[in-house]
Amino acid sequence: MIVAESADENIDDITDIAMLNVNQFRSPEVIAEKDINKLDIYEGEEESEKNDEKGRLDVFFKVNIVDEKEKTNEQKLILAVEQKVNARVDVNQCDKYLRKFEETFKDDKFLLVGLVPKSQMKESNEATFGSSRWIGIDYQQLVDIVLMPCLDNPDLNIYAKSIIQQNVDALRMPYKNKREKLATIEERILVRSIYDRFEDVIKAITKISNEDDSNERDYVKMVVTETYSDVFRTIRWILDEENDVDELWNFSSPFQRTIHKRWDELTIIITHGGNEMVINGENVPELWNKTLRWIEEQGLPLRQLVDEGIILGSGDRGKRYAIAMQPVHLNRRKFTTIREYQSILTGEIYSLEAKINSESAMLTIAKLLKKLGVEVETPLIESNGMFVNI
């Protein structure tokens, strides 16, 4: 049912598979780390591909389905899962697997599933995996819709229960030296209860955080970012994830932003190849367009970074893009205000999020230029005492 919910197409066909009676299954087979090269599709390529390191599916499930009305009719069902945690999704690898499955199981039903962290999910399965035939699900869906209901089943085999519980325990651990987890469990329950009970307090914090400087705002900022920072970080993370609050408190790091100064003109100073250049813009879109054009004129590799999505702000841990190929943020929300930049090299259209403050825009541009090996100064932010030149 997760797969049906997450598919881009053929949802009815997949739902029909999900509704099958387990009594219709014959000769089930589950293989961990299935060697994709043993599917024997292209005999001429078989030998050359044996050493391909990207040739193993993490889970390969095969079963024969018996027609309830015509017992002699059987159809094969294949469910293959490619799992990612630290590694990024490889579109070429996904294409290779798809071609092999289309040839080998062209007369059978097969589902190719990518199990990935939510941060890797883009606006569609095609954008994430290169084809809508792939179906992406994230670890939170796996926990909420499969693992936890299994653990709640009183008839669950005691040996299976311990394995599933270990899997859930592993998913709730922070990974990749980050605070983020692949899935949250107790935190979600706790945060939901806190929000339901103290909704007026959460809304008050949000309101105060967006006011001008005041004693009340300074006090709330201290509580949120210092005294109980871990608690409020978790609350914000989960509520943002569930799209329950449109705009939570916006103090400085580790949160997204603070009350920002407005400037009549935005300025950045670039030093590259021994030359210094000043770029000015009356607004955020104009500054972005001028900067992106300069980057492409220098022949710097902008396209790859835009394809990955340039996260808003000075870091790379947020959920909102400043610029991306499609106007959809990591949390799958659409850009609030969309502007476009047409590449002078490829003619492609890049999507810009215009609903961002001037300071965040300059911080993001500074981060982007640094990644491209360019020195940059942001004198307006520096003079405001909030940023050190990169």
From TrEMBL:
It holds the Pfam family PDDEXK_4. It comes from the Bacteria. This is PD-(D/E)XK nuclease family protein. It comes from Lysinibacillus agricola.
